Amino acid sequence: MTVAATFEIEYLQYLGPDGRFVAEPPKDIADPGRILELFKQMLFVRTFDSKSIALQRTGKLGTYAACLGHEATHVGIGAAMRPEDLFAPSYREYGAQFMRGVHPREVLMYWGGDERGNDFEIPRHDLPWCVPIATQCLHAAGAALAFKLRNEPRVAVTCCGDGGSSKTDTYAAINSAGAYELPFVQCIINNGWAISVPRKAQTGAKTLAQKGLAGGLHCLQVDGNDLFAVLEGMRRAMERARNGEGGSVIEFMTYRLHDHTTADDARRYRDEAEVKAAWDKEPIARLRTWLTAQGLWDEEQEKAWAVDCGKRIDVEINAYLESKVQPVEAMFDYLYADPPADLLAQREAAIAREARR
Amino acid sequence: MTVAATFEIEYLQYLGPDGRFVAEPPKDIADPGRILELFKQMLFVRTFDSKSIALQRTGKLGTYAACLGHEATHVGIGAAMRPEDLFAPSYREYGAQFMRGVHPREVLMYWGGDERGNDFEIPRHDLPWCVPIATQCLHAAGAALAFKLRNEPRVAVTCCGDGGSSKTDTYAAINSAGAYELPFVQCIINNGWAISVPRKAQTGAKTLAQKGLAGGLHCLQVDGNDLFAVLEGMRRAMERARNGEGGSVIEFMTYRLHDHTTADDARRYRDEAEVKAAWDKEPIARLRTWLTAQGLWDEEQEKAWAVDCGKRIDVEINAYLESKVQPVEAMFDYLYADPPADLLAQREAAIAREARR
Amino acid sequence: MNVATNAKPAAETGADTAAKTDTPITLIEAITQAMAWEMRHDDSVVVLGEDVGVNGGVFRATAGLQARFGSERVLDTPLDETTIAGLTVGMALQGMKPVAEAQFDGFMYPMVDHIVCHAARFRTRTRGRLHCPMVLRVPWGGGIRAPEHHSEANEAIFTNVPGLRVVMPSSPARAYGLLLAAIREPDPVIYFEPKRIYRQYKELVPDDGEALPLDVCYVLRDGTDVTLVSWGAQVKEALEAADRLAEDGISAEVIDVATLKPLDFDTIAESVSRTGRCVIVHEAAKTAGFGAEIAARLAEESMYDLLAPVERVTGYDTHIPLFRLEMKYLPSTERVVEAAKRALAAG
Amino acid sequence: MNVATNAKPAAETGADTAAKTDTPITLIEAITQAMAWEMRHDDSVVVLGEDVGVNGGVFRATAGLQARFGSERVLDTPLDETTIAGLTVGMALQGMKPVAEAQFDGFMYPMVDHIVCHAARFRTRTRGRLHCPMVLRVPWGGGIRAPEHHSEANEAIFTNVPGLRVVMPSSPARAYGLLLAAIREPDPVIYFEPKRIYRQYKELVPDDGEALPLDVCYVLRDGTDVTLVSWGAQVKEALEAADRLAEDGISAEVIDVATLKPLDFDTIAESVSRTGRCVIVHEAAKTAGFGAEIAARLAEESMYDLLAPVERVTGYDTHIPLFRLEMKYLPSTERVVEAAKRALAAG
Ligand SMILES: Cc1ncc(C[n+]2csc(CCOP(=O)(O)OP(=O)(O)O)c2C)c(N)n1
Ligand SMILES: Cc1ncc(C[n+]2csc(CCOP(=O)(O)OP(=O)(O)O)c2C)c(N)n1
Ligand SMILES: [Mg+2]
Ligand SMILES: [Mg+2]
Question: pLDDT tens, C237-288?
């Protein structure tokens, strides 16, 4: 038998669900001080998430997409990037975004129905949340192409879900990243569900990592609830990208512990037992166990940190709640650099109508 | 190192360019009598092709997409199918279509700018030529889904080119075939070029067969100039499909010996040396050598067969040339089963305008 | 070979116990009821889309259908709208009657290619050999405080495309009758569902399998002074405006276009021939919205009837803003009233 | 961090030897000339599409550009229009000025999603933080005896979409000036190229880098009896009709819309205020074609000026047939003349 090609997809896991190493992580990613910082960031994200859900439940926020259970993946992705790199999120990777400088109040503004949430103070060049699934992946590939053509040492990193891995835009991004050998990292965050559709209904592929083979990219599967594995997977992909070795697809295995969004009721389609089992593998507990075992963390610290996070987030929430609705002309003012006359006339009419109220 | 998945893609070749076996083909596909018939069919197709090009050059046909060099792939695909299966071609697989009953005059009508070319007398259910690249692949997957839902033992077979393998529709077809385990065969006919864009510019993937891995399909690469390999590759894929084992992607390695279409001039972008080298591997010569060595074919037979083909094709050409242009109302008559009143009024106006000429 | 389907015409399936019809239902329930009726009577009808199965659709339009008809009749798809559109076309070409769902208006753009290049063309392309009996259901329009891309009025993308039908109901009864007609129609239908009024009110909708015609505008209210023409959710504002105008002694006729393509212009022209004034109300941006076609027809065919310039009350030529501002984008009843009064003052 | 591009404004690049300008050129040569000028003066301009590189485009619009500017400025793409559109948006968001080519009108539908959901929205979505300075060039329309899907007039798909500009030249000089303007425009522009007149005639087009305004209709011929409004290839029939009408002593004003979105309605209204009659001529299907918007504006704003009903001379409400019949689909000069005479008789 003649063989045209063979492929092997590696799986990375270091820290098991019980908080003990199943394999020794590479030295360069396992600096305890840094891991501690990232752990605290994960806790911050979880606090933000629960406060946001509460805001929605009390009518103070629109539909909100929670990130419960994704903290290691999101924070690990953010940690692997440099400020000048580009991040193109889907809509729940707050953990990565906070690390890049996005303010929690901006997240709230966006889900609160205000475009100003997308006007990130930092980083100015990152892409905003993207609702049409996976289209951001192609924009990230386009950005990576711009970086390559301009000889800028920057990497474009984008995320989609297990559902998003079926989207043709994801394939297009992967294929063009391969064709142009772009500094591009496609993160597929496999949390088991795309609203009510389980992972197995999305595709017959054994892994989602292998989506990358269709474009000749480097493929990797990692335990997305293991911060060490996330960091190592991202490190490899970012290095390849920076060294001009082309793009990567990483599948992060995690789980969506919350409903899809606050508009969803997962009990309609998902077995509670599955969720319960997933809680045993969630990313924060295992890292807490490890850090505690290292003598780096204890209950006292956790309590103090929780208070600190709560305070900082409340400041953000208040900034959001106190924000004034944009004036009616905001609808017109950012459409064109040079707005057409008819549009300006409509704008005047709208302002006049407001004034009459 | 933990491995999440491994894949191996087989390459099939039996008859080498020199007309000798590099490996022994499986018995069930290598019946000399059948091979002879298919060889004659390949010659028929080549004659049709050159006559069609001549028609275009003399202003009697519109743009025409030649199939020179693809005969083994096309005829082998057609040979592997049953009448009740569905074929969804791109635009140059005449060899497969003739075997399914499509008349040469229908091909000419279509390229001659007349929709009646798509009204195949046989097979009524096959899809017509498809100009928007690779969209037919998804229609074939949809047809396969219909077959599966209705428990019909039928297979949907579709073709796209190396260029078409980049198209998102191809990925969507592959992925849904995997997700629903459809009786579906995606033929990727890699003839080296997509108009002026070489295969390597389409994708970083080592093979095009591996596009199937993204959807969990069975993947295979075959020498598309070797009729035996084409037959064996298709046999495996069709059997899998019929046995409910799901879909396949087969990459057929062949070469576009002609310009892309008669509207193209490949000398602008393609090295003549490459074309010359490709002629050494073309499918008809090697099969002729083999059949001659078996004592099944000689010059006399070839001459007689050429005359026969020429005559039969001339009958078809004449039928095409003598066809009357459709009346102006044909534009209106097949748009809706139940045409709206305004459209009927436009139809009347158009007829009246014609009458006034 | 001709593809035999296992579909049986409604007549052959014999006695069918219609659902209880003494309980008023909402527009979205009427949609579910129509799909259920037709699935019961025609085996070739299948429903597909994202989350339409066990979840019953994000709006619950397909609630209960999978439990009732099985997962071979109600299929969740992979998350890709190109896939949904392409599979739907392929199934339809081979004798099924797929009813596909786009989860929201803003996600249907990747379907445009298969709709325009294929669904709308197979009959003409093959001289009638193959055709495409499919329905694409699209929850449509703004006003529900949803996230970005969940509130778009994009019907104009399809109204210039030959070979399509474009339908938009504005009441539970019309939702039921028009959806039945759409599924039975042998050509492709885009069926827009005004999500703002999915649950606005209930009415009695007998589950009798009676389809409504697909080429008729509905006069919802007779009037003599001005004709208000609208469709979808905006019909509500048109009717409210008629009420308000009545308070001022102005008699407004209200027309629900219901089927945008093919347009029943005669009903509109007849009304305008009596009122001499026309206000067109729609949610989409003004420029080149479908209202333009109605105004154009008036300029061509009713010019001598017009006593005042045609008025369009529409969304602004901007994207619908995120929800904090969206109600300022949607044409208000007040704007309709003002336009009608302008038309009356002009005459 | 702000993304620095290595683009230099035209002024800084200093003296540039303009191409010889004493040879008349065709419309498509003017397009090539405009791209070459702008690539020379702005490093952030890149060209991408299928076969645009060594092959110079299937119509030769990009002929010579790769040889001149290198394969980092002129990129062949994988064969996927979604890819082209998505990459283009991504590049534009990061400070490049991509000029993408859709090989033919009929292949641009997969681009609709990225254009409508993203290109047209990034500025408003991010309150101006990111924007999308891109051009999509689209060989447009019928009449060249091409295969299926190579002859479509689909501009109406975009004219209802806020945030876009839609341009269509009808002469070499306007092709040059409008394309320069389109590339320099900080917002996305769909630039339709009427392929039927790519090589219809030549004119002198100085290669001086002078852009034309993107919001102006051109009065190509003054007249007093009737206004003929058209765009793209159909301007030819409008001008021919004006000639024929002149033979009968009828003075027709001919307007080339040139930029459909935003529409310079004032120029049209001013003309109609003098002629009282308007014939709109376009290639696309009639119903909800862009002509409807012009007729609608007339019905709204010029009603008192109109002496006769507005006339639309357009493609039929069918797909453009394969080429044996296509000339019977395209609006003929004769049909324009008839419509103008009808308008005159009505007045
Ligand atoms: C193009 C498009 N289609 C449908 C939707 C509606 N939708 C929003 S999220 C979602 C599921 C996404 O699942 P996945 O990609 O797994 O990401 P997750 O939400 O699990 O993070 C769907 C169908 C959308 N936003 N965009
Ligand atoms: C969607 C779409 N984009 C572009 C084209 C124009 N086009 C026609 S054939 C072709 C190249 C196809 O190459 P490939 O898929 O390798 O098939 P081949 O012609 O080599 O058989 C292109 C770009 C098209 N027909 N459809
Ligand atoms: Mg998911
Ligand atoms: Mg090819």
Answer: 999 999 999 999 999 999 999 999 999 999 999 999 999 999 999 999 999 9
What is the secondary structure of A197-231 as a DSSP string? Answer: EEHHHH-S-S-SGGGGGGGT-EEEEEETT-HHHHH
The answer to whether D169 and D216 have CB atoms below 8 angstroms apart is no
For the CA of D110, the closest atom of ligand 2 is 1
Chain B neighbours among D 110-169 (CB < 8 Å)? Answer: 110, 145-150
Statement to judge: residues C121 and C87 lie in one domain: yes
Whether the CB-CB separation of B183 and B212 falls below 8 Å is answered with no
C219 membership: H or E segment, kind and range: strand C218-221
pLDDT at A100 over 50: yes
Burial of A152 (0-12, 13-18, 19+ CB in 10 A): middle
> Is the same domain home to C243 and C181?
no
Percent pLDDT > 70 in chain A is: 100
Could you give the number of structural domains in chain D? Answer: 2
Label residue C306 by pLDDT band (50, 70, 90). Answer: very high
Is the domain of C188 the same as that of C237?
Answer: no
Domain assignment present for C213: no
Residues B194, C108 contacting (CB under 8 angstroms):
no
Handedness of CA D244, D246, D250, D253 (dihedral sign): positive
Whether the complex's predicted ipTM is more than 0.95 is answered with yes
Report how far apart, in Å, the C-alpha atoms of C73 and of each of B161, C45, D21 are: 33, 7, 67
CB of A176 closer than 8 Å to CB of D87: yes
Is C11 part of any domain? no
Give the total residue count for chain A: 357
CA-CA distance, A223 to A233, in Å (whole number)? 9
pTM over cut 0.80:
yes
* Cβ pair C90:B138 closer than 8 A: yes
- C-alpha count within 13 angstroms, C-beta hemisphere, residue B103: 19
Per-residue confidence band for C19, with pLDDT thresholds at 50, 70 and 90: low
Q: Are residues D39 and D143 in the same domain?
A: yes
Q: Is the CB of B288 under 6 A from ligand 2?
A: no
Q: How many helices and strands in chain D, by DSSP H and E?
A: 12, 12
| pLDDT for D21 | 60
Q: How far apart are CA D262 and CA C58, in angstroms?
A: 37
Among D197, D232, D255, the domain boundary falls at D197
Whole-number Å distance, alpha carbon B235 to ligand 2 midpoint, is 27
Range(s) of the domain holding residue C104: 21-197
Last residue in a domain, options D167, D197, D227? D197
D191 and D235 co-located in one domain: no
Ligand 1 contacts (CB < 6 A) are A 92, 131-133, 160-164, 191, 193-195, 256, 260; C 50, 79, 81, 103, 107
Establish if D173 belongs to a structural domain: yes
Q: What is the pLDDT of residues A247-282, one digit of tens each?
A: 999 999 999 999 999 999 999 999 999 999 999 999
Of the listed ligands, the closest to the CA of A161 is 1
Compute the average pLDDT of residues B278-298: 98
The number of residues in chain B equals: 357
Q: Answer yes or no: is D266 within a domain.
A: yes
Do D272 and D141 share a structural domain? no
What CATH number does the domain containing D264 carry? 3.40.50.920
Instruction: Please check whether residues C135 and C283 belong to one and the same domain.
Output: no
Query: What is chain D's mean pLDDT, rounded?
Result: 94
Which of C106, C163, C312 has its CB closest to that of D296? C312
Q: Looking at CA atoms only, how far is residue A272 from chain D in angstroms?
A: 36
Cα separation, D102 vs C117, whole angstroms: 15
CATH number at D121 reads: 3.40.50.970
- Statement to judge: residues D193 and D324 lie in one domain: no
Q: Is residue C311 within 8 Å of residue C252, measured between CB atoms?
A: no
Read off the amino acid at residue A311.
K
